[in-house]
Write the structure tokens for this entry.
Amino acid sequence: MIFASLIREWKELSRFRALEPRLRSIVFYAEDSSSWTYFEPIVRELTGALGKQICYVTSSKDDQILDLNEESIRTFCIGSGTVRTAFFLSLEADIMVMTMPDLGTFHIKRSKEPVHYVYVYHSLVSSHMSYRRGAFDQFDAILCVGPHHKEEIRATEELYGLEPKILIEAGYGRLDSILEFEASLPSHLTDSHSGTKRVLVAPSWGENSLLENYGPELVEVLLGTGHHITVRPHVMVIRHRRRLLGRLQQRFGPNPNFALDLSLGSQAVMHDYDLLVADWGGSAFEYAFGLERPVLFVDVPRKVFNPEYERITCTPMEVQARSEIGDIVSPDRLQEVPDRIESLLEDTGVRKGRIIEARSRWVYNLGSSGKVGAEYISRKADNLSNGTDPGQK
């Protein structure tokens, strides 16, 4: 079975290499099937208004993009092993677009051929605290979500003496898609529930995460509000902490106001809920900015992937913006959670205005990020193909 998969992946790589250069000028690489969420607004602009052909290379055999039958999008599945390594090392293309950070740090290296690498963020959060040091150093261009990314990247370049990258004021395609979807729903599906509210608990994962350290205590307090409480663990918790989830279900499952949502297909669905309880996950900002509804943050220790982040004199976005889109409570004061929730739910008009104002400051080009990103990629690809690009790649 493994051998057969490997043969298929080598055949896919051969099929990609057999394309004439103009058909593989622009390549998107997807680490998994969720990457399409972040690429789609850009791809649609490229293959639509801009009339471009693209290649979409994925590591997931279950990626729905493989069933997409569109002449302007050629799809390939190369797995995540040796074929992928060979694909990256030998890539011949003008543009490679990725949501995977850490290019050149581990086994995914830059090509031996001249390729222009473009990074697309898959979260609104900071680039220096929430990612490893050097995560973006080997990209040539970055489609920044907001001013914080430009500030953080430039400060990182200055601190470590790095060559300046091309920073595009792009925006966030995932947020644009949420807003577009919300606008398409009937009003009765987007209005706040009357009476009993629906509260979603969707924290991040890791040794300091909310659910893994305070799960039972938090759920007990939340059920005391009388609202319907849904706990949606992070996918990594679902995979690795089944015993914890089993204890939650055993203790609270009989309560009709409790639900434990373990469906991977529902991870991105949030419009059914009036309020979100979170810790440091970036999805809290997608929820607030996309649905214009508040978040209650439980202030567990920060989720830090770069121990040197404090050398960069930029306060992480997720630290600054939390109080703008909701409220913050200490895990030592969980008894205050019911009052905090009622205050957030009663203050809907004022809070919504604050969220909208914060969104306008933190996110570029609301509703048109795909167009901005696609125009840069298209223009760069044309210049590189024609030999008229003033840059080095």
Summary: Residues 369-386 form the longest helix (18 residues). The CA atoms of residues 171 and 366 lie 6 Å apart. The chain has a mean pLDDT of 92. The first strand starts at residue 26 and ends at 30.
